[in-house]
Amino acid sequence: MTPSARQTILNRLRERTPLPASTQPDFSVMESRRWSLENGIERFIAQQASVHGEVLRVSQAGLTAAVLEQLQQANARRVLIAPGQPLRDDLVASAPDIDFHGYDQPIEAWQSELFHQTDAAITGCHAGLADTGSLVVIPGSEEPRLMTLAPPLHIAVLPVSRLFSSWYQLITEEDWTGPMPTNTLLISGPSKTADIEQTLVYGAHGPKALTVFLVDDR
């Protein structure tokens, strides 16, 4: 850059009119997007269906049987589930022919097994968003991110009490302006890509199917 060109740029910056002071942000539109519980449930189901996700409403008492039926329909024989997942003991007792195991070792030790021999993964959810039909998942040591990315079937358990109208409602009510999760996943339906001839394809990378059990815990 020549000295004259540099000086021209500096002069323009000095002569630039200052931007007006920013006004207080208006969140009224986002705050007004609230649904009743039943309307929120209907919207969540419809939004998931629009991206090939499946939502099944079940009672707390019927959850174990419903999950087992889903696993049997998928012919799942090796299922990833955290030791601390409340469903685990009932599932193990009810289906001795299915191998339920946890994510209990470094990925380097069992990468091939995870990607090629695990049929399904069962995880909890931090929340659900009716607005977009998304699951909010916060990975941890027992349920790391790969549990939702590697097995061909992802089964997610979402209590009705954790269904929010929108992302804005969730982060506002839980005050995510302060300490917040460092790794948060938003999952809307099974995996998809548009890299193949610019056509949206489902199940190309990661889970080919997503089933959400919406549990009435009221």
Could you please describe the fold and organization of this structure?
The chain is of the alpha/beta class. It has a single domain, classed as NagB/RpiA/CoA transferase-like (Rossmann fold, 3-Layer(aba) Sandwich). The chain is built from 7 helices and 12 strands. It has helices spanning 3-15, 28-32, 37-50, 63-73, 88-94, 107-117, 167-173; strands at 54-59, 78-81, 99-101, 120-124, 127-129, 134-137, 153-159, 163-164, 185-187, 192-193, 201-202, 209-216. The strands form 3 sheets. A 6-stranded parallel beta sheet has the order 1-12-7-4-2-3, with helices on both faces. The chain has a 4-stranded mixed beta sheet with strand order 8-5-6-9. It has a two-stranded antiparallel sheet with strand order 10-11. The longest helix has 14 residues, at 37-50.
* Average pLDDT: 88
pLDDT < 50 stretches: none
Amino-to-carboxy terminus distance: 68 Å
Structural class: alpha/beta
Q: What composes the largest sheet?
A: 6 strands, parallel
Number of strands: 12
Helix percentage: 25-40%
Looking at CATH, which topology would you report?
Rossmann fold
Which CATH first-tier class would you pick?
A: Alpha Beta
Strand fraction equals: 15-25%
Compressed to H and E, one letter per element, the order equals HHHEHEHEHEEEEEHEEEE
Tally of helical runs: 7
> Please, what is the CATH homologous superfamily?
NagB/RpiA/CoA transferase-like
CATH architecture: 3-Layer(aba) Sandwich
